[in-house]
Amino acid sequence: MPLSEQEQRLLDEMERNLYSSDADVVSAGGRVRRPNLRAIVFGALVAVLGIVGLIGGVISHLMVVGIIGFAVLFGGVVLALTPARDAGKVSRSGRTKATRTGKSSSDLMGRLGDRWDKRAGA
How many whole angstroms separate alpha carbon 49 and alpha carbon 41? Predict the structure, then answer.
């Protein structure tokens, strides 16, 4: 079933707004962070200890031990999911400093930034 003329105009307007908001997000910049393998492993170990504590609290019928186990589990998961802090700042074009200096971009964000620049120029 084809769209009516009004629906087509509304869809086109929504698409333009989406493209402009995407450009605003990219130009706002932010920090690109990479996962820290050491933090992931340590966080997973802490989470396993938390699970053991949680199960121990349930088995022993001690609510305090279960709550502490849950808190340790939660802390381990947060630690494992927290990215590293040593990544570079993203420029207004969505590329890192290494990409702007002429080095080839093999990472996903660099390729997406290049595609965005090509599309915006066309």
Answer: 13
Residue 105: strand, helix, or coil: coil
CA distance 7 to 13: 10
Neighbouring-strand partners of residue 31: 89
Question: Against a cut of 0.85, is the pTM above it?
Answer: no
Tokens of 10: 């509304």
Give residue limits of the domains in the chain.
Answer: 5-121
Q: At what angle do helices 108-121 and 5-28 cross, to 10 degrees?
A: 130
Q: Count of alpha carbons within 13 Å of 121, Cβ hemisphere only? A: 7
Q: How many Å is the maximal CA-CA distance in the chain?
A: 67
Return the residue matching tokens 């349930």.
58
Residue pLDDT, tens place only, 82-100: 877 654 445 455 555 544 4
Give me 106's structure tokens.
């093999």
Asked if 72 contacts 51 with a C-beta cutoff of 8 angstroms, the reply is no
